[in-house]
């Protein structure tokens, strides 16, 4: 089974990445809308009260849940915002991977643009990891003792970041050799 | 590049067009143009042999060395 070119493993992976990319876009948009709604509700709790009054009187459980939402509004909003940002970061990574796999499917792995794409993936992976630490630190500071998650220094994540950066340099060398080959008559 | 390709002059002397040479040698016109305009980074021995065969000349008739400011270092030395 071929790894590169049309009808190869990379074209199959490209289809998977397309599906994941579309799903992530939907996820980011949905999460952003929910965050926006939560932000509006946290600024205007009366709106929530009006909403609950407008619905049928029997929904006590839902009313309680909404009341809880109103009281923890700001923390839920910031949590949602962090999740939206995290998802957006993953979207950028998958988007770059998708474009890399487009060149692999075309049978041109050492396209010069792939270097910048790989570097972007490395930067985003590092950014997401740092964002995770920042999110933990901020949540531990704002909400002490509430569902505290112990931070873990993920060696795998940092190893991946370094591997991606090295791969970017490998691709840079490949692109240089490709350019040389193009100008060899 | 201190190596100049004098393909134009040899073609003129042989009264041969670039298209005809491309057909005879089996190299695309685009690649021969790259060679003619001095943009090529390297020439394969097989291409040089085919050019010499069809133009009935020696490699020295096609390639001329001219010392210049970018002369003296190989690219590997510059990178490393």
Structure report:
The complex is a heterodimer of chains A (185) and B (80). Chain A is mainly alpha-helical. Chain A has two domains: 1-87, no CATH class; 110-185. Chain A has six helices and no strands. Chain B has a single domain, classed as lambda repressor-like DNA-binding domains (434 Repressor (Amino-terminal Domain), Orthogonal Bundle), CATH 1.10.260. Chain B has a two-stranded antiparallel sheet with strand order 1-2. The longest helix of chain B has 11 residues, at 45-55. The two termini of chain B are 20 Å apart. Chains A and B meet through loops of A and helix 3 of B.
What structural keywords apply?
heterodimer, A: mainly alpha, 2 domains, 6 helices, B: mainly alpha, 434 Repressor (Amino-terminal Domain), two-stranded antiparallel sheet, globular
The CATH H-level superfamily of chain B is: lambda repressor-like DNA-binding domains
What is the CA-atom radius of gyration of chain A, in angstroms? 23 Å
Strand content of chain A: under 5%
Largest sheet of chain A: none
CATH architecture of chain B: Orthogonal Bundle
Number of strands of chain A: 0
First-residue to last-residue Cα separation of chain B? 20 Å
- State the end-to-end CA separation of chain A: 32 Å
The stretches of 5 or more residues of chain A where confidence is low (pLDDT under 50) are none
Which percent bin holds the helix content of chain A? Answer: over 70%
Task: Briefly note the CATH topology name of chain B.
Answer: 434 Repressor (Amino-terminal Domain)
Topology of helices and strands:
The complex is a heterodimer of chains A (185) and B (80).
Chain A: H1 9-43, H2 45-54, H3 60-71, H4 73-105, H5 113-142, H6 155-182
Helix pairs in contact in A: 1-2, 1-4, 2-3, 4-5, 5-6
Chain B: E1 3-5, H1 7-14, H2 18-25, H3 29-36, H4 45-55, H5 59-62, E2 63-65, H6 75-79
Antiparallel strand pairs in B: 1-2
